[in-house]
Amino acid sequence: MEGNETIRELAKKGIPPEKILEYLKRDGISTDIEEIKFEILRMRALKKHPDALKMFFTDETLRFATPKEVGEYRAKRISGSGAKIIADLCSGIGLQAIEFARYFEKVYAVEVDQKKIEIAKRNASALGISNIEFLQADIFQDQTIEKIKDAEAIFCDPSRSPSEEERRLEQIPEIRKIISDYSGITDNICIEAPPQIPPERINLDCEAEYLSLYWKLNRLNLYFGALKRCDRSAILLPGEDYLQSRNIELKLKRIENGRFIYEVNPAVRKAGLIAEAIPPEFDAGIFYEDKKDIMLASDEPFESPYLRRYKIMERCSRNPSDINRRLIALGAGRALIRGRIAQDEYWNFRNALERGLSGSATFHIFLTGDSAVICREF
To answer: Which residue from 26, 211, 275, 322 has the fewest beta carbons nearer than 10 Å?
Structure first.
């Protein structure tokens, strides 16, 4: 334990594993380079799970591991159907199954990869979870389906290539097969799909729930059977603000000179629920819109969990020298760029904006065409 704590302290200072090993040997602490790298991996995993320092991961499995906030939310939502037994298909290293275990009486964790199953067992043991039955099996074999036939809900996060250039439901043929093979057990099925898939490309009788975690698009959950509440929805974590489709047409005028602008949560935007996110009394308009993004504007401030509000401080040209001069006058210390800018131009542009800034305030620079709007989150 003393060695692990020392590794963490040195790693926090940015010291590379090879140097950490030298320090530990000098202090008479027995370890090796792999143990040091593993402890550093656990530190990275804290972003996904608060108990990560007790748990087990590999680089690959950590990349695809379910964040605790996501796993807990899904467990609460699916268990709300009244189901007591759930099967987690393609369960990986068990992070989702562990969250299910806190809300269900029994969990089947089915995974074909033996190494992942072993890691999942160690993770469950490390967290004191004992109501998971681990099955190393192919989820489409008849004997697998027979073993879990008492399941009252099914969850699956099917494997897919991380390098696909375009996300389409057709690239995951397992989804339709899961529905076909397991609907004989229960219609209460939830399948995770890539969140980049837009609602119009989901040709299934399900609820497409887009999930954002800390204001970033994170997951797409497809709910079938009694789990379905509507056609489209958005859930914002960790606050659990939930918005569902009511088929309201978005009718907004364009506003050029509002005092406030609003960023729409990416899950709300992806689900096509902007109209549902704006109450009738909110006199809003469109400040900026392109194929991938939309910004709203208003003269009077409005508060909503689905919108991030900014107060406009200055309007100017897109010229970085012009923006920089105004940021200095506003007492800025940091500038965050929002809007379209070429990747190879980003850092040169941002460095030009922040040149000579000595204040403490953070400002957001929204770039629209040839213009820029300098804002503060409000």
So the answer is: 26
